[in-house]
What does this fold into?
Amino acid sequence: MTLEDLLTLTRQRIVPLVLGVLTCTLLALGVALVAPVNYTVSAVAYVRVDVSAEGKDDTGTYFTASQLANQKVDAVVPVFTSEAVAQRVVDSLALKTTPAQLARTLTANHENGTLNVTVSASASTVSEAQKIADEVVNQAGVELKRLEGDGSPVDVVLMSSASLSNPVRSPSIAKYPAIGFAVGLVLSYAWVVVRELSDKRIRSVADVSEIIHGPVLGAVPTSDSILNGRGLQAVDVSAEEEFRKLRTNLRHVQVSAGKRVFVVCSPARREGRSTVAINLARVMALSGQRVVLVEGDLREPILGEVFALPPQRPGLAHLLIGAATLDQVMVSTSVRGLQVIPAGAAPSNPSELLGSARMSDLLTYLASDYVVIVDSPPVLEFTDGVVMAEHAGGVLLVAGVGRTAQDQLRRAAQAIKQGGGTIIGAVLNDEQRVLTISPLLDNWHGISDVCMAVPTIVGREGAGRRLELPLTADEEERLTASADHLREVARGLGY
It folds into this structure.
């Protein structure tokens, strides 16, 4: 994974990344707040050697004493943290702990180039830690005399008492959240990278093209307006241009035997193939072509609802069994040049009907006067799409971004090819892209509670993140003024 891939992944997964980091940071802070608290303070001991100069200043004698002290200081450091000293401190301060436990809380370090030893002690309160640190120094001097004899010239004195002003808290309120932040950042990125690498769903045009070994003729955002029953004129404006591009691309592809019959199918359900089929038929008709939309999904038809047709109206199934004529099943729509053949009553043998010679003859006949768009059932669930593909000029395979698995698309393509169909290209449904729309803003450049046209990432879930723009101070001012004006207009209209 390259740095560019990582940056792209960061933009795509910014929400789980932020949530992961925030969660770990808050957990670390919680641990720091609820965990038993210890305070560590330090006292400084001085190691000295008593000398006798018989009333005279003897520089050599003091030099010899200093050298001896330098040699001794490293040797006496372990005495400060010994259990013997700890026992003396426990007895002296009447502490409710064992010498071994106390010894584990003590540290002693020699400061290089000096005769000083820094002694640190930890306790549940600052004052107790101070008393222990100071007492350790005092008792270390006593223990050293015991070890070396009363005649030893080496002595340990308290040079600097443990300070109450600079205790070290453990766990640290500042340190733990910082560690939590770092751990959260690493774990969050590890999670999104592993998930991305293990995620075998379709994510881009390149994924689709590589699998089907053919071109991607369109990459359109999802438009649920038709499927929600709002009619042909309610298609999302953001998708309109993409369907026009798909229409244009279809004019330049070679179809089998010159048939102007296009089967639109998908590997599984809810991948947008009906939306693509309906909108493609619509924009073709708007360009002046005569188009007939055939509902090849006899099991779960939707065109009757979309076009508000009577429930008992005859359709494709009736036509194929000879119970109705073509004139009886073909329905004109509000779009000039667009006609529809709905599914009709659900038959018991849809695959046999759709793969019959009568269906082949129907498609051939329609193709002589119309561009035929067939809305097919999911390829991996039913064989209907495969058997119709054999009679078509070409197949448009629809894949849903973030929904269609790569293996599903691969198996669907193989099934169509093995059934004699020709995949002329694919349509990528719901590709996230930057579109200028007017969402309700929430702190976009400081602007909230107003709808304005801003660049927005649009995908399957609708409008997503608003993109921040590099604006000058003057542009920021004019943008804010526009927002204020819009609010005044809205208030004037009673909103």
The chain is about 45% helix and 20% strand. Residues 223-231 have pLDDT under 50 and may be disordered.
